[in-house]
Amino acid sequence: MSVPLDEDVVQQVNDAGSTPWSGTVHRYTAAEYEPLSGEGAYKFGGRWNPRRIFPTIYLARPLSASMGELRRLAEATSVDPQALLRRGYVLHDIEVVDLPVLDLRTPAALAFVGLSVDDIADDDWAACQSVGHAAWFLEYAGVLAPSATGDGHVLAAFEHRIQPGQMAVLESRPLDLETYLRHCPPA
User: How far apart are CA 131 and CA 115, in angstroms?
Assistant: First the structure.
């Protein structure tokens, strides 16, 4: 089943336009997954992508935002973060260069496409998914928005819209409890 595009949202996102963005971001993955694969989000959906429409790579900055997202995952699944980490996670540092994104980092930018900060933190992802779907449809390479943790930003990069040289893994290392605790913001 396909999720229909909201034509009004497509127009709002088109009017907002894309902005080239560069920077270093972070991502954690289960050890068996590739660092630049969006297949997990494709299968299950994510805040910025409806399931089974397009693969999306979720990244965050600063590192504390990524660790906060891990804490949210633990809370949502009622699993202790320590238990999650025992399953074997890898922390990746990724360089992004000139990725054309829908930049929603300010309240004004969110409002322009019909979103609010409350939508970003809401457990109902429908409003954000509608905006992400529109950005993907318009061939943007991703959405840059505040993290649902309230700390930093999330980059939802649309895997098939990334051009060669726009994203590269700088370093991958096991994600241990010490790193998590040192960088995870208080709940």
Answer: 9
